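Here comes a specimen:
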Amino acid sequence: MNYYLGIDVGSVSTNLVLIDDELTVVEALYIRTRGRPIEAVQEGLEKLGGSVPAGVRVGGVGTTGSGRQLAAVIAGADVVKNEITSHAVAAMRFVPGARTVIEIGGQDSKIIILRDGVVADFGMNTICAAGTGSFLDQQAARLGIPIEQFGDVALKAMSPVRIAGRCAVFAESDMIHKQQMGHKVPDILYGLCQALVRNYLNNVAKGKDIKSPVVFQGGVAANAGIRRAFEEALGLPVTVPEHYHVMGAIGAAMLARETMARKGAAPGSRFRGFEASKVPFEGTSFECSHCPNRCEIVEISAWGRPVSRWGGRCPRWEVSDGDVAMLTRQAQRVS
């Protein structure tokens, strides 16, 4: 039996998913990145390696997210795709006929417009953290409410207050002001949910043709208050899929399966094996001074030898296939 591995490396979480030939999710891991993406990916590989049944082979690997290139080097990826493509593929799998995808993660948010199974338009917001998971975590901690209970408490609101949600700093200041005026916590929290949804629709989704079915995914989709606020603002039902928090990784795994099916069995996967969790990867960077471009080159090395570089506009710093093959052989010896 073949499994396909998808890895989504973001600023807040690193997600790993294994799917089978029937596109069924077999294993799913959600790991906090904590500013150490190499360690997070290796932790995930180690955990998956201990849970995969004997006789199962990883037939393809896909990576996505802001750290997709890094994850591709560590695991040995067959396909590297952006978040828009990965989330769109997964959404269409779990919500057939999906036409709008709302994705809000730890540090950014995006909208994907789908028409006839194709990405017709998209938008992203990476400028302000208002409305993202990290901001909600911060506000929940400040109010002494576990983030898992944020949405349920917000849904108890009887008279939501209006919060200025265009900026994370202003939103927090406005929440403090409303508390000092004596408003109840549920009213403040649901007012914040409404403000963040307004901010999303006025910025990320501005000018987008939002149509049903609407799919809500990403870590923030767990917040029932945000979901209801979206439904009220859009006047449309919003679907949260079962694996909402790892949809990017699922999409990457699906794309890996598709890629390997096109290639056929002959080439085989570039997957380094779960033993890659033991390889001493190190990341560094330097500025190339050979021309006025002054490219910032990122270098990943193992056992004192570079195994991958990127960031350059010319092939001067490219790593040879021999070094990559060396890494794979060394990883296998570690096991």
